[in-house]
Design goal:
Blueprint (H helix, E strand, L loop, with lengths): L2 H5 L8 E7 L6 H9 L6 E7 L6 H8 L4 E4 L5 H15 L5 E5 L3 E2 L4 H10 L4 E10 L2 E7 L2 E3 L6 E3 L14 E3 L6 E4 L1 H6 L12 H11 L3 E12 L11 H18 L5 H21 L3 H15 L8
Parallel strand pairs: 1-2, 1-4, 2-3, 6-12
Antiparallel strand pairs: 4-11, 5-12, 6-7, 6-11, 8-9, 10-12
Length: about 300
Amino acid sequence: MSEAGRYGPEAALPPLAVLVVNWNGRDVLPDCLGSLAEARYPDLRLLMVDNASGDGSVAWVRAHHPQVEIVQTGANLRWAGGNNVGLRHLAATGWRGLVLLLNNDTVVPEGSLGRLAGAVALRSEAWAATPRICYASDPARAWYDGGLVGPWTGWVRHAGIRKLTGRLRNEERFVGWGTGCALLLTPRALEVIGELDEHFHFYGEDTDYSLRIRRAGGRILHVPRALVLHKVSASVGGGTSPRKAWLRSRSHVRLLRKHWRPWTWPLLIPCQLAFLTGHACWHLWQGRPVTALAVWQGVLDELTDRPYAAG
C-alpha cells in the first residue's frame, strides 16, 4: 500500500520540525541537510542549534541552506543542552507540531519522514517514535532496530545491531527506549515530559527521556519502514577509547540510580557487576588496559558524584 493510501493525502501529515544540534559538524552537514531539503514533506520546518562551532558550520549553512533556521548557543551545551535550547525556541514561536531530534551525522532517505510521522499520527498511545537506523557505510546492516531495557537486570541495548535488515521484523511495534540519533517527539510528550535531563553529560539522555515517557503512561513506537542512515560518530573517540568507555559507564550508572527502584537491586547489582566486569575484561583481552580501567572509573566517579571537568 502506498504512503498516501495508508496515511491519507500528504497534506494530512502533521506539521514536523526537525531539530539538529551541531558542534563542528561542517563535514557531515551537507549530507544531512541535503537529504532533509529533498525530503518532500509537506509541512517541514528545519532548525539547527549550533553549540559554538569553530569550523565555519554556521556560515556554510547560511550560504547553502538559507531555509534552515539557526540558533547559536554561544557555548558547547552538548546534545541535551543544545536540544533543550531548540525546544525552547520552537515553543517560543508557538510550534505545536511533531519534533524530530536528529543527529547531524545522519542521512534521511526520501519518504522516511512521512512514514515515521504518519505512523505516530495513527497511534494515540505513542508519545515518541523511532525509525530503523542503519550504518551509512553499510545500509543493509542495522545499527538500531528498537531499544531493549531489562527491567530487573538494567541491561540497555540496541535490538538488531549489526544484523542484516532482510532478517529483521518489519512490523511496527512498541519498544523500551528510542535512540536520540533520530527520536520523534509528539506534542503530548513535550507537554508532559518537557525537556531533556542535562545532568547526563553524554549518553543516556535519550534512554532517560524514554523511561520518563513510559512512566507517565506513553509508549515509544518503532517504525522499521522509516529509515535513517547513521555515520557512527567518533566525536568522543572510537568505540574502544578510554573517554568513551568512561562516559558510557558514568551515564549508565546515573540512569540506574535514577530509574531502578530499591526492590530491583538484589538482581540488578550482580547483573551489573557481571556486565561491567565482562566489559572491562574484554578490553583487557584486546590489550587495552587503560580503557578497561576507564569502565570502572566511570562507575566510581558517578557513585561519588565527582564533578565533570570543564569542557
